[in-house]
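Input.
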Amino acid sequence: MSLELQDSNFQNGVTKWYHEQCAAYMNTVDRLQQQIAAGQLEIVNLQTYNPRSEIESPVWYEIKSYSEKRGYKVVNECTFYSSHYIGRYSHEGYAIILNPRFGNIFNYLVSYATNIYIPYGESEISFNSQNNSYWLIALLWKAMLNRALTTGQIPKEYITVTKSQKNYHGRLAIAKHIRTNLCDATRFYCSYKKLSMDNTINRVIRSIYIILKSKGLSSLVAEFEAYDKYLCSMGVGAEVVDVHEIDDIRYTRLSAPYKPVMELSRTILKNHKAESSTDNSVNSDVSYFIDIADLWEMYLLKLLQNNLPSEYHVYSPNTGFGDSLLEGGMREIRPDIIIEKNGRVLMIIDAKYKDYTQFGKSAAYGVNREDLYQMTTYLHHYGNEGQNIVGLFTSPVTCLDNDIHVYSHNKNHRIGLVNLDIVNADDNIDLLHRNEQIYIDNITKILNSLSYPEKSNL
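Output.
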C-alpha cells in the first residue's frame, strides 16, 4: 500500500482517514524521520555542498481529529505534507512516494540541467516501481560523472610502493634489502611514493558502472565503457567497495566535483547490497530521496549560462569550494549563482524552490527573514565600494512583484524577486519556453542597468 504526494505540497496536503490506514502511514513517516536523523536513509544531493544539518524531512503529518474505537482513542483524520524532495520510502509493507509536481516538464528540467537528452513526451517520472527509481538515479549519476570529468581532474593519490628493483629510488628499506638482495648487488629494495589512480573514488566509479550494467541499464551508461577500460588499464580495481569507504573520502579542490557522484554512488550501492542480501530483515525495496531544489538551481544556472550575452560570466560556487567570510578560511559562503562582468560581481541569484510570489514586507507575504539576511550577507561580501550590485531571488511560480528595492543605508545595494514560472506552465513546453525568454530578458535588462548606471531606471 502506498501514500502518494507531489513534492512541495506543504499547504493543502493529502488527508487519510482511519479506514484508510492513516495510523500505518504515520508510523511509516515516523520511521522515515528516525532514519534520516540517524543518517540511515539516503538523501541525494546534486551539488558539492549540502550539509546534512540542512536536510529537511521530506514528509510530515498533522493530526486533524480523533475518534473512539472500541473504547480507545484513535486518530480519525490525518493530513500529510511534503517538502522539496522526490523519491520513495517503504516500511513494513507501506510506502511513502513523493513524485515531481511538474509532470513532463520535470523530464525537461532534468534534461536541461544535466545535459542529457530525454525526449519531451516520455512517460512522467514516477517512483511507483523500482525500475523507474533506478532509471532516474542512474541518469543523474551519469550526468554528475560527466560534470565531474569536465570540471575536475581524474582523482589521483600518492601510495607507498616497496619493492626490489634495478634502479635506486626513494629510500632503501634496509632490512628487506639485506634479506632479499644480499647476494645481488645489482638490485635495491626501495620504498617510495607513487602517484596512482587506484583510489576510492575511481574504484567506486568502476564498481557502480558494473552494477548499473547488471540492472539492464547498459545503454544508459554505454558512453563510459572506454573510461572504465582506461581506469582498468591504470590499475584501478573493480571490486565492490563498502559504503563506509565512500563516507571516509576526503575531498580536495581538485576532487570536489566528484562529491555528488559519490553521493549517488552510495545510494546505488546501499540499495544493491540490500537487494542482494539473504537476510530477510533487510528492506530490499529501493528507498531514497532527491533534493529537487538542487535540480532547480542547476537548471537556472544552465539557462543563464546558455542565454545571457557572452560579456557576462555566470558560475556557481556550489560546484567547488566557496569564499571564506572570515579571515583564516573560516565560514564559507556559497551563493547559488554569481554573474560577473570584467571581473566585477554585478548580480547574485538565490534559486529558491519556494512559492515566493512577491517580495513582501514580511514572511507572510513573500521572502522570509532568513533568506533576506542571507542575501544581505552575500551583497556585503561580494559588493565593491561605490559600485552597484543586486541580489535576486528566483522561484518557480508566478511573480506578482518584480520591483527591485534599494537598501536604506547603502544605495549601491539592491534586492528583489524575479521569478521563472514553471509550476503553472501546465506541461505546455511552448509556454515554458516563453517564460524562459521573459526571465532572460528581465535579468539582461537589470544587468545592463548595473553596467551602465547612467541609463538605469532602477
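The first strand starts at residue 2 and ends at 6.
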